Amino acid sequence: MTAPPPRASASVDRSVALVAFAVFALHALTASGYGPFRDELYYLACGRRLALGYVDHPPMIGLLARVLEQTVGTSSPALRSLPALAAGVTAWLAGATAAVFGGGRLAQVTAALTLALAPVVLALCSVFSMNAVELAL
């Protein structure tokens, strides 16, 4: 016996968007609670000296650091705005995945909250690094 295929036109419930926004807000509000992480300073330095590749990290992080520095500055909340956004997007994607598999409102919200409150996600999305961006990809 095979299971029926998932619904092709699954819609994501609005409450998943609220969860995603709450996750973004949580990370954004706590971004200035501590000083810069040493890797954040290193990525800023790489952003000032862009290259096609680096020995220890992908080239995109330097470009992202450069864009953030030029647009919003180098304060801790400014640098951590991108990981906060990535956390919100990741939570929304978890809810959307539950919707694709036929989950209702409760399943979608549970998936988004479970992912958003996972310790690894909370840790990775609290500092500016490629790890936070990779979660949303």
Task: Give a brief description.
This protein has helices at about 15-30, 40-50, 60-70, 75-80, 80-100, 105-115, 120-125, 130-135.
Description:
By secondary structure, this protein is an all-alpha fold. The chain has one domain (36-136). 65% of the residues lie in helices and 0% in strands. The chain is built from 8 helices and no strands. It has helices at residues 14-29, 38-48, 59-71, 76-79, 81-100, 105-116, 119-124, 130-136. The longest helix has 20 residues, at 81-100. It is elongated. The mean pLDDT is 91.
Count of folded domains: 1
| Run of helices and strands | HHHHHHHH
- What is the helix fraction of residues, given as a range? 55-70%
Principal-axis shape: elongated
How many beta-strand segments?
A: 0
Our count of helices gives 8
pLDDT < 50 stretches: none
Q: How many angstroms does the end-to-end distance come to?
A: 34 Å
Average predicted confidence as pLDDT: 91
Give the C-alpha Rg. 17 Å
Strand content: under 5%
Largest sheet: none
Q: Secondary-structure map with pairings?
A:
Blueprint: H1 14-29, H2 38-48, H3 59-71, H4 76-79, H5 81-100, H6 105-116, H7 119-124, H8 130-136
Helix pairs in contact: 1-5, 1-6, 2-3, 5-6, 5-8
Key traits:
137 residues; mainly alpha; 8 helices; 0% strand
